[in-house]
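Curious: can you check?
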Amino acid sequence: MKLRNLPLTLALMAAFAGTAQAQSLATLYEAAKSHDATFKAAQSQYKAAQAKADQARGLLRPTAGLGGNLSESSLSNLSNAAGSGEFGTRSLSLNASHPLYRPANQITFEQGLKQENLALVQLKVAEQELILRLSQAYFDVLTSQESLNFVKAQKSAVSEQLAAAKRNFEVGTATITDTREAQARFDLVTAQEIAAENDLRIKRLALDETVGLRDVSPKALLGEVQMEDLQKGSIDAWVTQSAQDNGQLAQARIALELARLEITKAKAAERPTVDAVGSYGMTRFRNGAPGAQSNTNVATIGLTFNYPLYTGQSTQNRIRETVALEDKARNDLEAAQRSVAQATRAAFLGLQSGLSQVHALKAAEASSQSALDANKLGYQVGVRINIDVLNSQSQLFQTKRDLAKARHDVLLGQLRLLQVSGTLKANDLQDISRLLQK
């Protein structure tokens, strides 16, 4: 190891120390699932949709009811005292009906099943959004942490350069300008360090809020990661995949199916309905009954038929409304298809661009390191001035920060591509976690 790179190496080692207790992305996802309010709301919505589907199923089943009556009467017959007295009536009835032909009920039941499927898709979308939000917060912390690490390393290197400039000035081999330039750069890096520390605190708070834990420490990315395998398939293949599985498109398709069922349901209001009905009733009298009435048991069974003849044009206007809403749902689906296709292409090209940036920044990092070494050597032999060394240091650390961010952006880009294609799952976080430090 070259001695002139020792301060940088020690600074980076100190900055990255303490990651043994860090949490992986997959581990934090389990905590986020039980904490995130948006995801839990989607879970509750799905449970409500299941209950609503069961309610619609009840419209196809028979219904029964039990009724009773209790009354007391006092009769005073002024013309015939013998007819006076207290009388009581007790009655109990059981009524039941079963829909034989109610097309609107059948359609409502089918709509309930569609609503349940819609809530399931919404839950899947909410899970994917949670994965992406957690990953964004996770890598935001890593990017901010590495930025702070590099600023600290740069501060250490500038401090060494400042000390060297002061020594050279004292022995008369350099001017005061070198010292002032190094001091100015040291003050600038100190300000950057303060800003980086504050940014890291903000990013950590956002990650803590996402997972519902305190002082979360994410695992850093491995130094050497082969990212070329992340991008598989062609852009057309990804567009085709998103057309099949994208959650937004799935919701739009179900909305169109619901709109079509609503048209059929509105038209069903013009059809007759037939129900099977039955009842059994008992009536009992206390102390006899006035007149010739006596205790009775009555059983009845039959059919009830109803045919709407005129509804004041409400049914016809309802049909017109549902037809217009079905046309809207169709146009919404077409707009969603175009939007998703465009988003898929953008995600694919963004990932491709990110991979190219990683390769370019790796080359730039090596070149910047060579330039810094050359400027340091030139400064020692007197063919370079101090500002050249400081500028080379600044360029090197800026390149390192950009490379770290680009690598994180590539991983996020892969997750975004999976999300827009509708194939993002929790297992994908396990794949990302394998790229993190142990």
User: Anything to note?
Assistant: The chain has one domain: 3-34+103-271+314-433.
